[in-house]
# Entry
Amino acid sequence: MHVKPSAKEQEYFARQEVARRRKSAMKQYAALLLERREQARALHLMKCPKCGMSLEEISIGEVHIDKCFSCEGVWLDKGELDIIREKEPGFMGRILSVFE
Ligand SMILES: [Zn+2]
# Structure
C-alpha cells in the first residue's frame, strides 16, 4: 500500500537533495581547481618567468641551471643555491663564466 509522505517528510527529502547537490557542486569545484592547476603547470613548465620563452637546462657538474637564451635570465631549482654555497669560493663565478 502506498502512503503519501507527510509535509515534514517531503521537507526532509528536499533538504537531503539540497545537501547532496551542494556537495556535488563543491566536488566539481575542487576538480576544476585541480584541472586549472595542472593546466597552469603544463603551460608554465620550463618557461621563463620573465619573458615566457623556453628555459633550457644546462648542467655543470651537479648544478643544473635553467637558462633563458632569450632574456639571458638564469634560474636555479630548490636546493641548488645550497649546493653552490657549499662549494669552494669562486665556484659561482666559474659557473656564470660558462655563459659569457
Ligand atoms: Zn626569459
Observations:
- The radius of gyration is 28 Å.
- Residues 48, 50-51, 53, 68, 70-71, 73 surround zinc ion (CB under 6 Å).
- The mean pLDDT is 93.
- DSSP finds three helices and three strands in the chain.
